[in-house]
Amino acid sequence: xxxxxxxxxxxxxxxxxxxxxxxxxxxxxxxxxxxxxxxxxxxxxxxxxxxxxxxxxxxxxxxxxxxxxxxxxxxxxxxxxxxxxxxxxxxxxxxxxxxxxxxxxxxxxxxxxxxxxxxxxxxxxxxxxxxxxxxxxxxxxxxxxxxxxxxxxxxxxxxxxxxxxxxxxxxxxxxxxxxxxxxxxxxxxxxxxxxxxxxxxxxxxxxxxxxxxxxxxxxxxxxxxxxxxxxxxxxxxxxxxxxxxxxxxxxxxxxxxxxxxxxxxxxxxxxxxxxxxxxxxxxxxxxxxxxxxxxxxxxxxxxxxxxxxxxxxxxxxxxxxxxxxxxxxxxxxxxxxxxxxxxxxxxxxxxxxxxxxxxxxxxxxxxxxxxxxxxxxxxxxxxxxxxxxxxxxxxxxxxxxxxxxxxxxxxxxxxxxxxxxxxxxxxxxxxxxxxxxxxxxxxxxxxxxxxx
Length: 452
Description:
Helix content is 43%, strand content 12%. The chain is α+β, with helices and mostly antiparallel strands.
């Protein structure tokens, strides 16, 4: 009976998808789905091409209401692809987990809201509302983590374990959810039309909790508020690790985005003003003046490296900035201890096979004297001796050979890593030079003085 029910479900899903698309449409784009979803002309949304894309979006929606990330939903799907995606809704536990990383879920909600406004198809409204319900259900605390602090979001829901369960500011996940919630409450926005009246109180509460979470997670070091990490532990609120190249640290990238958001809050409280002022002060204090990162190209116009160059008018920041003071003394020993549970990796060099332990990588490379300096690491399983290793040089440095071994460690990033991940950038400059002065002007010196 279960097999028959599953077969009927698959057939119905495919029939609905095919009827909406009106047949196979030309390939719509080779670009990234999340960008495609917000860059089409108004006229396009009423076309068969748009309805085919919307059918794909509905087909990819998880049982939980969320969507997967990094899926080109705008590209045509074969019948076999539709069978596979529809089958995953019923065949795998993992398929139930929706994701909010890399603009996932919020992009699909906004896209379906636009499709519903233009076409009036109730399936688009239902899909968008299920997405909103997913955002609300996945916010901490939830049924899977009732003792966690309130207001943050994991990367995936239901929770899947590991670093993806942390409060996630990385890649603007928290920010995207907050902007969606705010737009849902604003009657002048397109997406607000999808919000059922009876959900409004819940959406307002989720927004307030998300804002408070930002304030609560701002790291206090030696009694002074600083910035944010890309991930925070949902129970302690302390900075936490992500992937092996995302060490517990201050994040100039995500931290800048959060400051921008706080500056956009209408009638900010004294706590919001305080958070902005301290965040700006920390970024100013950690700026590296007279330097900027610059890509190196070959004769064919291909990126082959990234280097730091002198520039009198520029300044840069590390995406990851090492913690210092009492917060470093709290976070790093616990981080090293967590790494002890990770299985060793093995590296073969000539006739030697070396067992690489993640915690030892971190402990031996960590330099407490480098507080507030950019830190780097590498995510590459073929280089296990780099995983969770603290690196302090962006450019190449001579290799070092540990005592008793014939192979060479390379205690720096390599060119392929420098060009694939933005370890250095100028992200804060726009906020510090443009947004922050405009915010102070908007607030007015009198209001700022009152709140201070």
